[in-house]
Amino acid sequence: YSDAHATPIIEFLSVTEQLTDDVMLNLTFTFLILTVAYFIVIKECNNVKNNFVTCNF
Questions:
Q1: What tens-digit pLDDT sequence spans the chain (57 residues)?
Q2: pTM of this structure
Q3: What keywords are assigned to this protein (predicted)?
Q4: What residue segments make up the domains of the chain, in order of their start?
């Protein structure tokens, strides 16, 4: 058994871990944006009952 076989696996795992972190970061970021946007829309609906904002909540 040599380290030559282990290295690609370790590299693969570290890359996978990095990708997972990136995906989680993107999901969290997207979730935050959607949450903020949702509350802004709700606030607009409550403040101004106009034709531009459809309030179907």
A1: 556 666 888 888 888 998 899 999 999 999 999 999 988 888 777 766 655 555 555
A2: 0.52
A3: Membrane, Transmembrane, Transmembrane helix
A4: 21-48
